[in-house]
Write a structure and sequence with these properties.
Number of helices of chain A: 0
Strand content of chain A: over 45%
Structural class of chain B: mainly beta
Helix content of chain A: under 10%
Number of strands of chain A: 11
Order of helices and strands of chain B: EEEEEEEEEEE
Strand content of chain B: over 45%
Distance between the termini of chain B: 37 Å
Oligomer: heterodimer
Radius of gyration of chain A: 13 Å
Number of helices of chain B: 0
Distance between the termini of chain A: 41 Å
Shape of chain A: globular
Radius of gyration of chain B: 13 Å
């Protein structure tokens, strides 16, 4: 069974901290790994997509890495801000579909 | 470009009633997905269309859920009859293709409450 796990389930940090969100998956035969942000009551917004041939992608204060051999991806957020508070979901892209993790609820305290 | 449009945003019904959700994907996107997201969980794929053909509907409860994508553009997801456990947000997403380097773009979702 293909599974995607995210740890921790919830995280609360003071503003300005650098933080790491983890995503692990059981099937290493992936096409890509996509990170999303979800604000309460809203849909999902794509943050970063890492192709299976890549090791990392960066966008502003966000950096995502992918290690297929260990079945892991990490999302690094630098200098966190209260506006970063949201749920972060990773999704493993396979041949035909994406499988989502359960998410990490992040709260950045001002 | 316009995003993925969904309606209605909110719907409250009683159990055993029926409900329908509509989705208009990004223009030119061949692949359309319906996900169910129960509170506190990640989205679960219900059905995936490639143009107007079904690619995957293995997790669609076919005794009560149905979906169609006429002409390979808009899609409708129907639930009949609804159960309490169907309370969730129904997310529609689209992508250019179904494999590889394809970014999923989501709509705002339709929140269903079954009483």
């Amino acid at each position: 069974k293909q599974e995607v796990t995210q740890i921790p389930a919830a995280l609360s940090v003071p503003e300005g901290e650098n933080l790491v969100l983890n995503c692990s998956f059981t099937d290493s035969a992936i096409y890509n790994l996509q990170w999303f942000r979800q604000d309460p009551g809203k849909g999902l917004t794509s943050l970063l997509l890492i192709q299976s041939s890549q090791r990392e992608q960066t966008s502003g204060r966000l950096n995502a890495s992918l290690d297929k051999s260990s079945g892991r991806s990490t999302l690094y957020i630098a200098a966190s801000q209260p506006g970063d508070s949201a749920t972060y979901l990773c999704a493993r892209g396979g041949t035909y579909k994406y499988i989502f993790g359960t998410g990490t609820r992040l709260k950045v305290l001002a | 470009e316009a995003g993925v449009a969904q309606s209605p945003r909110y719907k409250i019904i009683e159990k055993r009633q029926s409900v329908a959700f509509w989705c208009n994907p990004i223009s030119g996107h061949a692949t359309l997905y319906w996900y169910q997201q129960i509170l506190g969980q990640g989205p679960k794929l219900l059905i995936q269309f490639q143009n107007n053909g079904v690619v995957d509907d293995s997790q669609l409860p076919k005794d009560r859920f149905s979906a169609e994508r006429l002409k390979g553009v808009d899609s409708t997801l129907k639930i009949q009859p609804a159960k309490l456990e169907d309370s969730a947000v129904y997310l529609c997403a689209s992508s250019l293709l179904s494999t590889g380097a394809n970014v999923l773009t989501f709509g705002a979702g339709s929140r269903l409450t079954v009483l």
